[in-house]
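Appendix B, example 12.
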Amino acid sequence: MKKLLILAYDFPPYVSVGGLRPLNWHRHLKEFGIEPVVITRQWANTHGNHLDYISPGISPLVIEEESEFGTIYRTPYHPNLSNRLLLKYGDSRFKIIRKLISGFYEFTQFLAPTGPKSGLYNFAKEYLKENKVDAIIATGDPFVLFSYASKLSKEFGIPWIADYRDPWSQNLSSKKGYFQRKFDLIFEKKIVQTSSMLITVDTLFKLKLRQLFQEKTIEILPNGFDEEEIVRCSKIHQNSSQLTFSFIGTIYKWHPLELILNDFSNFAQSHPEKAFSLKFYGTNCPERIKELVDSKYSNLKDTIVIYNKLPNGALLQSLATDNVLILFNYYNFTGTKIYDYLGLKRKIVLCYSDCDEARILKDKYYFHSIETDVLPQIDIIQKTNSGIIVQDSKHLLSVIGELYIEFQSTGKIACNSIGVEKYSRKIQVERLAEIVKELTA
């Protein structure tokens, strides 16, 4: 059986969409003839928010976990001075000092294995001195893992695969400045050129990567839903007491959040007798939502519910009780949440496909502009018959009204989707196993 070394920074129990990709590799690769060895960091999850990303690990020693799926090694994590200052004094103090320290490590970690993430490299190096593997895959970000994989590949003569969950130097959504982007581009070209091949999650990302690596083999392995977790949710019934609309995950600047709130506020104002609930799970901007409600949409105060981040299984079980799942338009790429929505078989409402106000936000903030007519979310929803493509605010008000009538009549919202099984992550793991076998033949 071939053995694959997986370098994955985000990995459960850390609550992160990015961690679900390597988790499913670990869970299913053995079924397809590949033995996975995961090297990740320790996650304490003591805060339940963004501070978990920089909090100390739970042990000064490497924690080894063996199961029927494979082996996981969790390396110690020691926050650097910048992180310790943030944890102790909060975000408002020592900002300049913290930025300088973070910038130092952000640059030097690509020159030599330094900083809090280097524990993964140091352990992987010691592991490979005593154990043979056939290939290495590093999933980014953080993209310093690509640097670690490249160094290990060179030292031990092992082919490595670069897995892009998001772009690196081409990611214009990050807060990096001009010079840091230039450094990222230099490091990216130098490091990724040593890989045997590239994997990414989306056609758009493949097109962007092709601009940098014209000769490299680039495969698309989409994200998907966790089949086992979806099965656990299959017997959960929608609530029948109140029509519930839900949204999960990150809200970007180009998402028409305020427009959505305005539309729901207008519906509530026009139909005060029609109660409904609007839920936000694990969003990155709860304070912004609360501020908008307090200042502009006070009639939604008792309607909106905001939840902290939940582990994926608990999140899906909660979503399974809801009636309608809201999806913002990602335009030329797919995102991740659509797959969980598909797996749960709840009606998807995509906002918006042809809206002037949303288009203004897209023109100002959208960070994935490239010449392509691909609209994967809309294509998937239409092919699977899984939801409604909402054009604009007027259309959304009509859709909410129609859904309310259906809910009053039947106590649920029907979703007659078809062919969603092919969006399971397990299918993509099978393709990854084929890639590893071909690469190491």
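The chain is about 40% helix and 15% strand. The chain has two domains: 2-223+425-439, 227-423.
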